[in-house]
């Protein structure tokens, strides 16, 4: 109790950010403090806990064992305090001034966010939406630190530690330009493998994906002649060349410039989900946004 009486909320908030950033300058930037103020807070914290907490290292400051032990209890305590003092009034979208940050791939932008965007502008005109690029290794940290309110991601690849809500199940179809001479009807497996194809490789430069795995089980192999990192470029390629692609059905369902047929090979689909951190689970605005987006898919 003696240590508790010597603490104030500002010190605990500073410690929480220091344990996340391991850097006084970045902590000062996040808290909108001066660097000397953060250094003073750190000195007080060291005295209170009788421990250096953070020590100089080759790549910034490194936490001591005592600091590591403090990290999760402190985060939970601050999250509980944040929930305790949060306003309990219901969220009113027409009056809201929120800036929401949503992490999405170009596929999720087209199939989830775009359908909901017009309605969002009509119902919540005072809000803003920032769409951030999907970088899977970073999403847990971004959610933990409040850099993202919502993440749109494949359920199978969703990391542990985030809440999740399934949105829909996607399947793959064979797509080419409207009037493509070899897509007048569903091709045979042999004809499919002869077609020159383009594929999306999110990691960059790959020529092997789920379609190729399915073909390998049948003892077949296709001709992938182009690999790109984004779906939007694929759509342009298909519209202007005779290349074809195996694409998610929702991505092309409203494109009259493309022809869609069933492929002669069954390719496993995937489930799309919304992900969010426990810190915003009960936030009225975040709850409203999740429900709104789910209603449009």
Automatic annotation (TrEMBL):
Keywords: DNA-binding, Transcription, Transcription regulation. InterPro entries: LysR-type_TF, LysR_HTH_N, LysR_subst-bd, WH-like_DNA-bd_sf, WH_DNA-bd_sf. Residues 7-64 form the HTH lysR-type domain. GO terms for molecular function: DNA binding; DNA-binding transcription factor activity. Belongs to the LysR transcriptional regulatory family. This is HTH-type transcriptional regulator SyrM 1. It comes from Zestomonas carbonaria.
């Amino acid at each position: 109790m003696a240590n508790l009486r010597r603490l104030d909320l500002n010190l605990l908030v500073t410690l929480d950010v220091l344990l996340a950033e391991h850097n006084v300058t970045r902590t000062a930037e996040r808290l909108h403090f001066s660097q000397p103020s953060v250094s003073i807070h750190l000195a007080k914290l060291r005295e209170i806990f009788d421990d250096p907490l953070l020590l100089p290292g080759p790549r910034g400051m490194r936490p001591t064992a005592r600091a590591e032990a403090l990290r999760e209890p402190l985060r939970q305590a601050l999250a509980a305090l944040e929930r305790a003092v949060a306003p309990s009034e219901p969220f009113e979208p027409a009056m809201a001034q929120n800036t929401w940050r949503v992490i999405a791939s170009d596929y999720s932008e087209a199939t989830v966010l775009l359908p909901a965007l017009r309605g969002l502008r009509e119902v919540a005109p005072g809000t803003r939406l920032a769409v951030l690029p999907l970088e899977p290794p970073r999403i847990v940290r971004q959610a933990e630190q409040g850099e993202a309110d919502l993440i749109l991601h494949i359920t199978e690849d969703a990391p542990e530690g985030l809440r999740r809500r399934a949105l829909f199940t996607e399947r793959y179809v064979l797509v080419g330009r409207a009037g493509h001479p070899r897509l007048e009807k569903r091709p045979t497996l042999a004809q499919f493998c002869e077609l020159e194809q383009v594929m999306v490789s999110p990691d960059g430069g790959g020529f092997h994906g789920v379609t190729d795995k399915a073909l390998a089980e049948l003892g077949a192999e296709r001709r992938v002649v182009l690999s790109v990192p984004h779906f939007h470029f694929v759509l342009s390629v298909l519209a202007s060349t005779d290349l074809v692609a195996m694409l998610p059905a929702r991505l092309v369902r409203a494109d009259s410039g493309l022809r869609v047929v069933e492929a002669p090979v069954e390719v496993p689909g995937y489930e799309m989900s919304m992900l969010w951190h426990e810190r915003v689970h009960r936030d009225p605005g975040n709850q409203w946004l999740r429900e709104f987006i789910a209603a449009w898919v």
